[in-house]
Amino acid sequence: MSPSIKQDYFGTLPDGRTVNVYTLENRAGMVVRITNYGGIVLSWLVPDRQGALADVVLGYDDLAGYLRKSPYLGALVGRYANRIGGARFTLGEIDYSLAANNGENALHGGRIGFDKQLWMAQVIGASGQDSGSLMLSHRSPDGDEGYPGTLDVIVTYRLTEEHELRVTYQATTDRSTILNLTNHSYFNLAGNGTILDHEVTLHADQFTPIDERLIPTGEIRQVVGTSFDFRSPRRIGDRIEESDPQLAFGKGYDHNFVLNHPAGALGMAAQVVEPLSGRRLEVLTTEPGVQFYTGNFLDGSIIGKQGRPYIRQSGFCLETQHFPDSPHHPHFPSTVLEPGEVFRSETVFRFSVS
Q1: Residue 198 CA from chain centroid, whole number
Q2: Active-site option among 184, 198, 322, 329
Q3: Would you state the pLDDT for residue 126?
Q4: Fewer Cβ close by (within 10 Å): the C or N end of the chain?
Q5: Which residues are bridge partners to 91 per DSSP?
Q6: CA distance linking residue 81 with residue 251, whole number of Å
Q7: Among 152, 157, 153, 184, which Cα is nearest to 76's?
């Protein structure tokens, strides 16, 4: 049945394993390319108001780039997305030490997180209102990067005829553990340049302030009257250079926003509009938070697609998630997963034009 998912060769890992790329395309012409290495969204072709296509995610043209250096461009991250302070946590009166790969902190699952794993891939053919699904599965062994329990994870990417990429997550464990999964795509709805003119709305009345280590302080702060008020559309560049200790710590926005909708229910997290192209991105999620990151640590040293250097603020991320450092803050939504439980989460990336 047409359209369907195409599988092609993408490269070979140093140990000889083959990496594939899977192309999802709907009838309206949206094209998403995903690889089973790290579950990375390689490219995402989206039409503007004139129908012209542009690739709206940052990345590399080949596998070698991702193997050489990649700040999680387009990747699935886990076991624990975002940071855990001090690279340690306590669960059930047992202390666990994690790989410290961000100063003294654990970041995005450790040195060899889910973004650097070769996932098993299964293609599910097109039917009804979708253009087929790519199901990726991975088993993380007990003690992987310091985390307890053997964890089985399934992530499914499904492209619909409504220009939605629906990402579902499912996981089980055989021991008490912690879990926080997300996709780390960097978006630029113009296709190039900086993202400072993008207009952002975040459905969040609160955010979690950070310290100089980029670790949440534990406070949940109202956005009203701050540089973090995106409750109505606002250019990213409007306040990003304001004199605010929070912006100084993150060198821009790199903060978790507390979403207004009930956790577990699929609700609107964010809308982003790029005025010149008219491309509009809506993000819906069942997660309680979203990390809004404005590419502050991109410095031009990464040479991405078509030889283009990725400079500061050339992409933004909307990482739907539980809150950073949750194991150290009991009043944050719990990230504990117990044997017999099934973790489920869904995020929808929906494109249109305005």
Answers
A1: 18
A2: 184
A3: 65
A4: N
A5: 94
A6: 20
A7: 184
> pLDDT, tens digit, for every residue of 11-41?
999 999 999 999 999 988 899 999 999 999 9
pTM of the model: 0.96
pLDDT tens-digit readout, 59-82: 999 999 999 989 999 999 999 999
Annotation marks residue 341 as catalytic? no
d(CA 335, CA 326): 7
- Of 225, 285, 298, the closest CA to residue 256 belongs to 285
Distances in Å between the Cα of 248 and the Cα atoms of 4, 211, 212, 230, 316 are 46, 10, 9, 18, 17
Q: Are strands 106-107 and 94-97 parallel, antiparallel or unpaired?
A: unpaired
User: Containing H/E element for 67?
Assistant: helix 63-68
Nearest-angstrom CA–CA distance, 230 and 235: 9
Q: How many helices (H) and strands (E) does the chain have?
A: 2, 27
Confirm whether 331 is a catalytic residue: no
Q: Which of 18, 19, 107 is nearest to 60 (CA)?
A: 19
CB 26 within 8 A of CB 163: yes
